[in-house]
Specification:
Strand content: 15-25%
Oligomer: single chain
CATH topology of the largest domain: Rossmann fold
Radius of gyration: 21 Å
CATH architecture of the largest domain: 3-Layer(aba) Sandwich
CATH class of the largest domain: Alpha Beta
Number of helices: 13
Structural class: alpha/beta
Strand order of the largest sheet: 3-4-2-1-5-6-7-8
Number of domains: 2
Shape: globular
Helix content: 25-40%
Number of strands: 14
Length: 374
């Protein structure tokens, strides 16, 4: 098949995250199967307009918002149209139903934005974006949709997508990279995500004030990057947590290891991952941590309530957990004498996920889509 991917960012984009990693894992396997794949996305500072990564042709054109019009122009310029256009939603849809025939398009979505708008956009634009989001799905009512969590499916149904058009496939995991090792001697916790308001990293930092008042040797590692990094540094300094809370990225440490290896090492040593996000599509880092024998403490929101089994592979808090609620969950874990069972349950749960299983489901769906439309 000749496949065109429309995705806001590519794997090299500094603002890319788990969504791009998941898509890349699937797409590079499509290439290995003999498919021709072009990934169309926005450019970023010092990026090249075109390059090839593991057989994937990357085309970068336009900026954060203009890329949508550039994608339309690019598609129109193609003399031979692709067999499938994968319309990958990241907040905004590409509106492919307006220029790609039904048999050639598939909507691929990680999550609906919904509550995220209130954290990332200032008032009144947040309200406007929240109200407008359902409108952009009006053109997709007859479009087939693929996603990787049941809670995202429920969101899509609430936005007007017919449930019979939605297919849910399992997420993948690299067990050669993520596997258990010895835990840290002292209570160690990690937060792994972009440093943006909707991930709520600052609440994890505030929670540590309560935790270290009882367990002074407890540590929290914030692994990531993003526009909230400066605020997090200020918060850590103001709360006098420099001996207990650390930001881990290439900007803050001279790491002899590759950053990805450092993330895995800390996942393996950690007693728990903390992710109090406003919303997730699944929370890829939760499954990665589970494979390292590390349970997760998460908010009760879409995606995370799919990736964590409450009291078996972690703890599901309220949808809007306060620093105190997070701290109490951390202290409860520290004082749990049967903590090792959470580690073992997490490892067992992670065995349900692999990239081969994920890709086979995804690939078969695309093949059946073409067969059903002929």
């Amino acid at each position: 098949m000749n496949i065109l991917i429309l995705n806001w960012r590519d794997i090299k984009n500094p603002e890319g995250g788990g969504a791009e990693i998941i898509l890349y894992e699937l797409v590079k396997r499509l290439v290995k199967k003999g498919n021709s794949v072009t990934w169309f996305c926005s450019g970023f500072k010092n990026s090249s307009e075109e390059e090839v990564q593991e057989g994937i042709k990357i085309i970068r054109s336009g900026g954060k918002y203009s890329v949508f019009f550039h994608a339309f122009q690019y598609y129109r310029s193609l003399k031979v149209k692709p067999d499938i256009v994968l319309d990958c939603v990241n907040t905004a849809c590409w509106q492919t139903p307006l220029y790609v025939s039904k048999d050639r398009r598939v909507l691929y979505t990680n999550q609906a934005a919904r509550e995220v708008f209130f954290y990332e956009y200032p008032f009144p634009f947040s309200i406007l974006a929240y109200l407008v989001e359902p409108l952009q799905y009006l053109t997709y009512k007859n479009t087939d949709v693929v996603c990787y969590s049941n809670s995202t499916k429920e969101d899509l149904i609430s936005l007007g997508i017919d449930k019979k058009n939605i297919y849910v496939f399992p997420l993948g995991l690299d067990h050669k990279r993520y596997y258990p090792q010895k835990k840290s001697e002292n209570p160690t916790f990690i937060f792994v995500a972009r440093f943006v308001r909707n991930k709520r990293p600052e609440r994890c930092v505030s929670a540590m004030i309560i935790v270290i008042s009882k367990y002074p040797k407890a540590k929290l590692y914030l692994i990531g990057y993003g526009k909230e990094e400066k605020n997090l540094k200020t918060q850590i300094e103001k709360l006098k947590l420099k001996k207990n809370v650390f930001i881990v990225n290439k900007n803050n440490f001279f790491l002899k290891r590759d950053m990805r290896d450092e993330k895995v090492r800390l996942m393996q040593q950690a007693w728990a991952l903390i992710l109090p996000s406003v919303k997730e599509g699944w929370g890829m880092v939760v499954t990665e941590a589970a494979a390292c024998g590390t349970p997760s403490i998460v908010s009760n929101v879409t995606g995370l309530r799919d990736s964590v089994i409450h009291k078996r592979t972690g703890t599901i808090l309220s949808s809007n957990p306060s620093p105190t609620e997070i701290a109490n969950a951390l202290i409860s874990l520290i004082e749990n004498k049967d903590r090792s069972s959470l580690y073992q349950n997490s490892i067992k749960w992670s065995k349900n996920f692999s990239w081969s299983k994920s890709f086979n489901n995804f690939n078969n769906y695309l093949l059946n889509h073409k067969l059903n439309e002929k």
